[in-house]
Amino acid sequence: MSSTLLPCPFCDGPAQLRSFPRGADGRNDYAVGCRTCDAATRVMKEKWLVTSAWNRRTEMTPAVEAVFDLHREINRAEQEMALIVNRLGVALERFTFRINKEEAVTDE
Ligand SMILES: [Zn+2]
């Protein structure tokens, strides 16, 4: 069985096999997830189970396509929100800097 991971079905991003220590027995649990968006398989006990789950693709029906479109839309919205939050942070820093400067001037 090939362990090559197909790209993400939602965003076409690269996939990554992740392992998690299971506990005292020193063995791992596994999941496959997208490096670009938050799509991922469930955590499972066997590598081959998560890779085959990730690589299994469902037939594209209109309902499935609608779910994929929604997922892409949510990703886009999350990226836009991250940009806005970043810009707000920069604006807040500038504002704080100006306030501090004005306070320093009025203290003199
Ligand atoms: Zn993805």
CATH class of the largest domain: Mainly Beta
Number of H/I helices: 2
Mind describing the biggest β-sheet? 2 strands, antiparallel
Q: Could you tell me the CATH topology label of the largest domain.
A: N-terminal domain of TfIIb
Q: Mind telling me the C-alpha Rg?
A: 22 Å
Total strands: 2
**Number of separate domains:** 2
What are the segments in which pLDDT stays under 50 over at least 5 consecutive residues? none
Beta-strand content estimate? 5-15%
What is the distance, rounded to the nearest whole angstrom, between the alpha carbons of the first and last residues? 76 Å
Q: How confident is the prediction overall: mean pLDDT? A: 91
Shape, principal axes of CA atoms = elongated
Overall CATH architecture of the largest domain:
Single Sheet
Bound molecules: zinc ion
What is the N-to-C order of secondary-structure elements (H for helix, E for strand)?
A: EEHH
**Global structural class:** alpha+beta
The share of residues in helices is: 40-55%
Task: Offer a few descriptive terms.
108 residues; binds zinc ion; 2 helices; N-terminal domain of TfIIb; 2 domains; 13% strand; elongated; alpha+beta
Verbal overview:
The chain is of the alpha+beta class and 108 residues long. It has two domains: 1-57, N-terminal domain of TfIIb (Single Sheet); 58-108. The chain is 51% helix and 13% strand. The protein is built from two helices and two strands. It has helices spanning 47-55, 62-107; strands spanning 15-21, 28-34. A two-stranded antiparallel ribbon has the order 1-2. The termini are far apart. 8% of the residues are buried. The mean pLDDT is 91. Zinc ion (ZN) binds at residues 8, 10-11, 13, 34, 36-37, 39.
